[in-house]
Every structure is written in C-alpha cells, then in structure tokens.
Amino acid sequence: MPTMVMTGGTSGFGAHAARRLTLSNDVRLILGARRPTSAGEFVPLDLAELDSARAFAKAVHERLGGVPVDALVLNAGVVLPDVTGRTLDGLETTFAVNHLAHYLLARLLLLTLADGAVVVLTTSGTHDPDTRSGLRPPRHADAELLAHPDRDPGRDTRPRRAGEHAYTASKLCVALTARSLSEHPDARARRVRVVAYDPGQVFGTGLARDLPFPLGTAWSLLGTPALGWPLRRLNRNLNSRAAAGHTLADLALGLAKPPSGRTYAALRRGRLTWPDPSRLARRDDVARALWNDSARLVGLPG
Where is the composition biased (Basic and acidic residues) (predicted)? Predict the structure, then answer.
C-alpha cells in the first residue's frame, strides 16, 4: 500500500486529488490540515507556524514507525490582499505559508522518502512574466526581503500590488526549491522525482478566501460550470478543479512522470506539459541563495 503525505487536501482541487487518492486507489494518505477532514488520516498542521510544521513532521515520523513515504504532496497555499500580515514567527504570511513552511517540511521529511518517491510542490504560472497573468510578477526570490517586505527598497507601496508580488514571488520560490531539492544528495540517493506543479488558473478554490468580498465573490462565480466552461475554451491557462486535482493525483501516483531533467509541469487546457519555468527560476545562483537563506530562516543547515 503506497503511503502519501499531503497538505492542501481539504478544499479546491486539492480536495479532488485527496478523494481520488483515497477512494480510487489503495493508498494510505496522511493529511496535514488545520481541522479534521473526511479524506485520509488527519494530523494537525498550521503552515503559518513553523513550530506546527515541525510538530507535524515529528507526528508523521512517529505515526509511520519507519514505513517510507512514497509521495509527498505540498499543495496548500494562500493569496492575500496586501503584505501586512505576519505569522507567529514574525514573517510575511504569504511567503511563510506558500514557501517557507513547505520548504521546512520537505527538509524534515526528506529522509523518510522511499526509493523512487515523488515530491510534488504546487507552484503557479504567475511566477513567470511571460504568462502575462495580470498579477505583479516577481522581481526577486530574496528570502530575507520576502519574509520582511518592509525592508525591501523596491516594494510597491500599493497594498494590492504588493500582495500580488508576495504571491507570485512565493511561487517562484516553490519552483526554485523543487529544482534544488531534485539535486540534493539525499534525494538523488533515493532517486526521488521532484515536480513543481502549475495547475493553471483554477477558479472556485479556497485560495482566495482572504481577498476582499468583491474579488472573492468573482473568484467563486468564475469557478461555476456556467461561467467556467466558456472561459476555459478561450484561455488555455484555465482549468477546472477536477482536472487540476486529478492531474495532481496522477503526479503523486507516478502515473504522470517528468521527462529527464525536468522539474516544472504546467497544466494547459487539461493537458500536462513540461515547459521551461521563468528565467529567474532557471538561475543556479538564485536557487542556491534561496535554499541557504530559507535554511537560516528555519534554523537548518544549508
């Protein structure tokens, strides 16, 4: 029986993936979330608290009792209207939840992975200016400045644009982390496949729950079949929750595998593609700096 560990499986396309993993396949799923869920085995996890991430990793170790993890799916995420929010650790919330807590979990659970295991980290095409998503593209992946945006001399003073940058930059960090993780000696020794998964634009998920009411309402309405289906025919970046979730499950199950040397996957019109990520996401120096700076922020060696 494959053993999988997942975040972000309680709503949106992540819930579709979790249901597929638990109902359609002989899988043991350990699901980290803030509240109990009907899918999988619930273990408390609040990604806005690094100590909660550490406690979750410890609980997973204890619960498994030496049983290796076949797939680690780090899918949870948030988008916020500005960069004023701070976690208990004093870090900007979007960066902490979307990147840093997942970075910490990947590091803490790396040695539990089975030979040939899969790690899937959910990123976003908005990290790449070439997608022309309409959101403020990332200017950098400097972990210290993203954790403390008030120190960033180039921060946009407009709250909404600053919030957009926090989101797209956090997703750039995810793509860079996937690249670094795939090259880590422990991952190579275990022949771990690492994928940064861009599900495309998926309306109707819980991602926008913290946005202002008009934006949140529009997000929900565009996720309905009546509005979503016509839009998806016009925009190749748009996908349904079911399509995004089923593809995420396929990646976790190894039914969809990356070509040699590829760590970035993008769902386009329901079809999984393996394009290049953004120019910043392909830079070795940026990836190394992010890995080491993130390690310092969570108290781990580089």
Answer: 127-163
